[in-house]
Each structure stands twice: as structure tokens, then as C-alpha cells.
Amino acid sequence: MNYxxxxxxxxxxxxxxxNISAETTPPHITPARPPKDKIWGSLSGHILQLKKDRxxxxxxxxxxxxxxxxxxxxxxxxxxxxxxxxxEEILKQKAKNFPKNTPGYKKVSDVIGDGVFTEVGxxxxxxxxxxxxxxxxxxxxxxxxxxxxxxxxxxxxxEELPDKxxxxxxxxINTFTLKVLGxxxxxxxxxxxQDRIEKEFASLVDLTEKKLTQLDIPLNPLQWWxxxxxxxxxxxxxxxxxxxxxxxxxxxxxxxxxxxxxSELYADIAKSSKKEANQFLIAQIKTMVFAGHETTANVxxxxxxxxxxxxxxxxxxxxxxxxxxxxYPENTFELATxxxxxxxxxxxSMYEFASESMRMRPPAWSFxxxxxxxxNIKGLDIKSGETVTISPYLCHHDPKRWDSPLKFDPSRFRPxxxxxxxxxxxxxxxxxxxxxxxxxxAWMEIMGLMYHLxxxxxxxxxxxxxxxxxxxxxxxxxxxxxxxxxxxxxx
Length: 491
Prior knowledge:
two-stranded antiparallel ribbon, 9% strand, CATH 1.10.630.10, alpha+beta
């Protein structure tokens, strides 16, 4: 059995979620309306409260006002919705009327370009058609080998460290995800680019978060200065992406760059403007570098963080991995995943722990949709041009759907419990036609690094290291680097 079937069986088969709906939403909904900002609310709406602490303000509003809330970002209205049945209609049944091109996504696209993550309409379909072959299951045997080798490199790097009490695991995770992305999608080593990628993307992400919760005020010197920094980082990252493109052009193997260069879409753009065609190419590569590296690295850092907090679960996972190695003497991730049966329970504890980590810290914690035409969603009237704010973080922590939602509990994803979940009460990779295209590769990286790291070591926080705090930006980043202490497990 190959890795694709493994993930498919863990997430479907007899683990498949049922279509049980949450309680029926009453017709003719009047959304709750939290108080606007003090003093400036008639102009700012809720911007000042969002700017202060966007995640916690939205979470407190959900607890206080329910699952359908009307908010204002300056003069623009948005509905914050956490009702699973309504979200299913927006993200699945009526996805064509609720595309991604909200004002917020337009600001995000300033950072990562109009790629497969942010583009909409017919152009998105054309881009998706170019990208799809890279995520075809027939490629996953090769990707499994890449993940296996790069995860082993992480272990080798840890072994070379003179101080096993201060392992910079978040740094090693970032290297791992970048190298997997570079080799699997571009046929090159992204390792030498790591410092520049991290520095410039971190600056852009921070500045973009500020842009999402600011009013555009003419001649504002602070905004002028932040825009100047933004453009400087943007130019730096574009120069780096151009280097990746130039290097990929000389690679004889099919890669992400060559796929776009040979596409009809690129050729059509180049007919009118070679400069525009190159900017289009930069946007596609930038999107993949950011989305393919940033989100998976964050998830792996959060999983490692929770493993250091929840030592008893670490023991259970390690016991299962010991049995896995005994069952498959080859003792490699690559061969074990190809050979084990579809219902092998030995992977289940890792899957449950990773799933609960993504419930607690979903990589894309908030995103939006905009109504093209007037619509009615389970009784809520939404006018053309109005937006919907959808937060997996809020949905994953909704006490109406989850018992003790702030408690870390992997048993929520045991087979029988998972069957009872509404599909839109847990959706760390999104849902509907815009579900994350790299979901399977992300799972492969998660399972691959967990397999190698937790088979070898007992993990604890390094001296002076506290559990990670959240930094909710475009993605749900840890607020600081993570350092751990590792103790080798006897063979």
C-alpha cells in the first residue's frame, strides 16, 4: 500500500466522518451586533478592537454573541459565521457565488501574488490545471522518498549538535519543509535560501497583518513608513524568487517552473507582455514557496510543542512506533508505509495527535469569502459585495460543537468519535473546491518527521522554554522559536 492510500484510509474508510448535521439554523436570521469601537466606532466600526487582538476579539464575540455576527471593518460589513451547516453551504454548495477575492485576500495577494492560493474564477481553474499533476498520487512514492531522506537529515543534524539540551527544533523544521518543497517541486535545494526566505516573508506577513486591520488614511506618516518597508521586503523576496526560477530553468527534469513556462496560460500572457508574464511566473512560485513551506512548518512546530506539554501521549505514540518497527523490520518510513495494511492501528495514535494539534492550532486560522450576487444562507440575507469571515480556529473551539474545547484531547479523533464530527466543525485544510491542494503532501511531511523524530527521542522543553504562544497573522504562527531537549531512546 502506498502513502496516498494510508492517508485516505486514516481520513476516510471506517474513519470517515458522517454527514450528521448540527442543529437546524432557524429561518430569517438577524445577526448579533457587538458594540463598535468607542469614540471612533461610526468611522472605524470594529477595527480598533480587531487591531488590538483580532483572534481573541473574534473568539470572545463568538462566545458572547453566537454563531452569526455582524461586524464592520471601517465602512465594510462582514459576517462572522461559525455555524457548520451555513459554512457547508458557503464553501461547498454555493462556492461559485462566494469566491476568495475579498479585500483581505487582495492584501494577502500583495505578499504571495495571484497564485493558486489567492486567484479566482477562470484563471484560477487554469492555474489549478497546471499545478494538479504535481499532486497526483502517482508522484507520491517519490515524495515519500524525499520526505524520508529529509527527515533523516533532521535526525543527523540533531546528532551533530554538541548540546542536546538546546535543540533549535523550529529552525530544523523550517529547513526540513523548505528542502522537501525544493526537491519535490523544483528539483533543487532550497536550504541555502532559508535565511532570506524566513526573514523577508516574516517581515511581509507582519506588515500584512497590520494592513488587514487598518483604515487607509491619506498622508499618514506611519502607513507611509510601513508601506516603504513592505515594498522593500517585497522587492527582496521577488529577487530571490527570480533566482529560484533561473535555477529551475536549467533543470532538465519537469518542475514547477517548467510546467508554467510550457503552459498555454503563460504563453498567452507573454504574447502581450513578457514583463507581465514574468511577474505572473514569480507570483506562482512565490505562492507555492510560501504556502508549501510556511503552513506545514507551523503545524510541525505546534505538534512538537504539544508533545512536550503532553508527555503521556508521547509515550503512547512511541510505543506504537516501536511495534511498527517490529512489524516491518526494514525500519524505514518509506518501506513501512508501502507495506502495511489499510487498517493498521499502529499509525492511529500519531494521526489522532496530529489532528488534535491542528484542531487547537489550525494553520489557516481565518479567511474570507465575498458574495457575487445577493444570497440567502439558512435564513441569513447576504448582499452582493458583502463578505463572510470564516475562522477554523473559532469553529474548532466552539463549545457548541466540542466538549472542553480548550483542552488538548486526541481521543476526539478516535474512529467512532470522528464519525460524529460535522465536516465543517473541523477543517484545518479548508473545504470545498478551494480545499488546500497540498493537503496530502503536508500530511506526508507531518507523519514522516513525527515517525523519525519521536522514534528516536524523548522530547522535553529546553531549559527556560515555555509552551509556545500564538501569533495570529496570515497563518497561525508560533510567537517565538521553539527549543527542545532530546534524550535518545535505547534501541
